[in-house]
Design brief:
The chain is an alpha+beta fold and 305 residues long. The protein folds into two domains: 38 residues, Single alpha-helices involved in coiled-coils or other helix-helix interfaces, CATH 1.20.5; 227 residues, Immunoglobulin-like (Sandwich), CATH 2.60.40. 20% of the residues lie in helices and 20% in strands. It contains four helices and 14 strands. It has a five-stranded mixed beta sheet with strand order 5-14-13-9-11, with no helix packed on it. The chain has a four-stranded antiparallel beta sheet with strand order 4-8-12-10. A hairpin with a 2-residue loop joins strand 2 and strand 3. The longest helix is centred in the first third of the chain and has 31 residues. It is elongated and about 100 Å long. Its main location: membrane. The sodium/potassium-transporting ATPase is composed of a catalytic alpha subunit, an auxiliary non-catalytic beta subunit and an additional regulatory subunit. It is found in: Cell membrane; Membrane. It is a single-pass type II membrane protein.
């Protein structure tokens, strides 16, 4: 019992030694010095961190990317999107393609003619391709930038107005294609004719960036059928007057120009792989990025119940 009392007194004395006035083995002065040291230490760390962030912010422009020369060319994306870029449906079963038409309908809502015409911050920049529209510098001195109008009706057969299934019910599916946004990027029409596919050679591309689709695999040649393109002025490309883009803060009402692609005669009950590319002098392709300036998609149109 005596040993137990001595043991109890030992830890109690360590917790508070009334003779030496020590708490956990240290006097008040010692604890104060330790506290002061860590306050200064962590204060210095915080100051270094805040100073580093502030120095970094000084190198960043509020509206323009600092190292835009390192940005890759824009990606080419399409709606509807699907897992593994595979679009499979049965023309006799609406449930198999309902998700695709729902996706396209939702995407095109912001392009509705009524919404575009009612927006006072959107200009009519012509029904045909024009050159770039320079809306000033990338700063807030001139306020919010105006945008060019792009009407949903430009997509004609693929607008979803007359055919709300976007051709899927007939086995003639549509894709809605756009170039992804890059601040201050100005796509340049192609001047190197040798790099173009045979279908585009001999054509001129004044004020627009052409797009072209074809079979990805040799064995699919002859199975794709006619491909129709619907864009501004009926052209298969992206007009230049919609560029450059000034960013979300300066260009809140901006909408990319679209091109609708309709595959009118796909061979049914077979898997077909199609590649679409956009062509321009400052648009490159990367084997590691399947959407940089291009995309490929697999179509399987089933007709059997």
């Amino acid at each position: 019992m005596a040993g137990k009392k001595e043991s109890d007194g030992g830890w109690r004395k360590f917790l508070w030694n009334s003779e030496k006035r020590e708490f956990l083995g240290r006097t008040g002065g010692s604890w104060f010095k330790i506290f002061l040291f860590y306050v200064i230490f962590y204060g210095c760390l915080a100051a270094i961190f805040i100073g580093t962030i502030q120095a970094l912010l000084l190198t960043i422009h509020e509206f323009k990317p600092t190292h835009q020369d390192r940005v890759a060319p824009p990606g080419l994306s399409h709606t509807p999107r699907s897992d593994k870029s595979e679009i499979t449906f049965n023309v006799k079963d609406e449930s198999t393609y309902k998700k695709y038409i729902t996706s396209m309908t939702e995407f095109l809502k912001k392009y509705d003619d009524e919404k575009q015409l009612e927006n006072n911050n959107i200009d009519d920049c012509s029904d045909f391709p024009q050159t770039y529209v320079d809306r000033g510098k990338l700063d807030k001195e001139q306020g919010v930038k105006r945008s060019c109008r792009f009407l949903r009706s430009n997509l004609q057969n693929c607008s979803g107005v007359k055919d709300d299934t976007f051709g899927f019910s007939k086995g003639q599916p549509c894709l809605i294609v756009k170039l992804n946004r890059i601040v201050n990027f100005r796509p340049k029409p192609p001047t190197n004719k040798t790099a173009l596919p045979d279908a585009l050679k001999g054509k001129t591309f004044e004020n627009y960036i052409p797009i072209h689709c074809k079979n990805k695999r040799d064995e699919d040649e002859g199975k794709i059928g006619e491909i129709k393109y619907f864009g501004l002025g009926g052209l298969a490309g992206f007009p230049l007057q919609y560029y450059p883009y000034y960013g979300k803060r300066l260009h809140p009402d901006y909408l990319q120009p679209l091109v609708a692609i309709q595959f009118t005669n796909l061979t049914w009950d077979q898997e077909l792989r199609i590649e679409c590319k956009v062509y321009g002098d400052n648009i490159d392709y990367n084997e590691k990025d399947r959407y940089q300036g291009r995309f490929d998609v697999k179509f399987t149109v089933n007709s059997k119940s």
